[in-house]
Write a structure and sequence with these properties.
Number of strands: 13
Order of helices and strands: EHEHEHHHEEEHEEEEHHEHEEHH
Low-confidence stretches: none
Bound molecules: adenosine-5'-diphosphate, magnesium ion
Number of helices: 11
Structural class: alpha+beta
Radius of gyration: 20 Å
CATH topology of the largest domain: D-amino Acid Aminotransferase, Chain A, domain 1
CATH architecture of the largest domain: 2-Layer Sandwich
Length: 341
Amino acid sequence: MRIAVCYNHTPEHSARGETRDRIADSGSFAQAQAVLQALGQLGHDAELIVLSDNLRTFISRLENFSPDLIFNLCEGFWGDAHQEMNVAGVFELLGMNYSGSQPLCLGLTQNKLLTKKLLLQQGLATPKFRLAPPEENLPDVAELRYPLIVKPAWEDASQGIEAASVVESLRLMSDRVAYIHEVYRQPALIEEFIDGRELNVAILADGGLTTLPIAEITFAADLPRPIVCFDSKWTPESAAYRGTKPVCPVQLTALETELISEAAQSAFTLLNCRDYARIDIRLRDRTPYILEVNANPDISPDAGLARSAGAAGLSYPQLIEKIVNCTSKRKEQSHASAATL
Ligand SMILES: Nc1ncnc2c1ncn2[C@@H]1O[C@H](COP(=O)(O)OP(=O)(O)O)[C@@H](O)[C@H]1O
Ligand SMILES: [Mg+2]
């Protein structure tokens, strides 16, 4: 099959956030290369097609290559992560078959507030929260129990999250909200801090939904806060990075595994995820609190989804082939239904 592996570049300087946040984007080329290599091993005719600041160039390269399908790794457009859904929208408008979730799901899951409202409506647990938009009075947090965690409402990759995000007082909370407004220029999400085990649940949708072996993120006891902060994800020389380790598969009781898997699969279905996703959960008193739904998670060979797939006995190329199969089946189905019109 001819497969275009699409990923995106980001500019040197971004309009908001910390300068260091750019590191979080630098893995996208390596991820695209790993997928390209796996596709090559599987015998596909695959090519990298990068989305930079010029959409027309991207579209014309895609049209020239004329792929059977697109392996979509785009996480935004030229440094603007909020355009992630619109990149998938371009593939929709071009009538091209692509892997992963569709625009509505990508947009919804990037908005942590909307996601949490939907989860609650479905009876799924998520930490209690309040939203603090810029230029408004602080919300009333009397009903929330300290410690709280303050994070940007629309970022990912632990941008804007560090030990100081976890706060024990109204004054510290208000300082951190001001920081999010100033640096990230968006609402701050204030949540109850769930002091429990952190679990990553990868789901594959090939036919039915499959929960891959669950991973736990473990934290060294001497870290200031047991959280996946920016440094623990992106700064190898930091104590936070060294002290944060994924373990997969993980020790859980059969009941815990069932509750976590059910919650993750319900969230996957509720938010209309497609092909694969990773749900981040904190487990406290047997309740799986959903922190977020990653509808376009990192699928590098050393990231969570591939690690869980490996624990299920799937090699990296086998994981990539499963995603390709999900995507190509859709094309056959849409052709079949078009033929009956
Ligand atoms: N309510 C919470 N309780 C405990 N830890 C949290 C909570 N919210 C976030 N965290 C910690 O911060 C990390 C990043 O938060 P998350 O909401 O997943 O943001 P991102 O989209 O940047 O990954 C989580 O992996 C977790 O370690
Ligand atoms: Mg997360």
